[in-house]
Amino acid sequence: MGKCDGRCTLLVICSLQLVAALQRQVFDFLGYQWAPILANFLHIMAVILGMFGTVQFRFRYLIFYAVWLVIWVGWNSFIICFYLEVGNLSQDRDFLMTFNTSLHRSWWMEHGPGCLVTPVLDSRMAPDDHHVITVSGCLLDYQYIEVLSSAIQILLALFGFVYACYVSKVFQDDEDSFDFIGGFDSYGYQPPQKSSHLQLQPLYT
């Protein structure tokens, strides 16, 4: 029962991670955030592999999934630091999320709850293929929406890491015990066979 409960809980966590990653992938595509798009794709693949390992009792897949979650926590921690501009990070100077290929920001910058977007006409600050806007009235700034999204990803990853380690340990113990039970074959044990020799008895008349 314990193993079944652990597997079911891990599958629920993986499902939540998959939904959260797909939702995040959609908004990153809308904002042309190429670095998060690549990271989200790798995360989705790792979560699917973790779900496959949970269903098929493959503890090596779960180990890979757990290792990826450590990387995923580090990536989301970096995103939090980036949007809060911790240290020398600056959103106005560093366009890391787009690989420095464009000036696009988060999709939530213009479409956040309550945000009012006003275009600035005849601005000399904008390149030829961009426009300058002012955003006001937001109930929650886009930085904090991105930080909240990353915090949810970290929380799910921590739960997933704990349960992946637990379930993989259970799978490994079951595999070791199965090998021990089948270990008698290595001693060349064979069941007794019936003798094919016939014993001749004298016939008296």
From TrEMBL:
GO terms for cellular component: plasma membrane. GO terms for biological process: regulation of sodium ion transport. The chain crosses the membrane at residues 34-55, 62-86, 147-166. The keyword Ribosomal protein does not apply. It is a multi-pass membrane protein. It is found in: Cell membrane. The keyword Repeat does not apply. Its main location: membrane. Keywords: Cell membrane, Glycoprotein, Membrane, Transmembrane, Transmembrane helix. Interacts with atp1b1 C-terminus. Belongs to the NKAIN family. This is Sodium/potassium-transporting ATPase subunit beta-1-interacting protein. It comes from Amphilophus citrinellus.
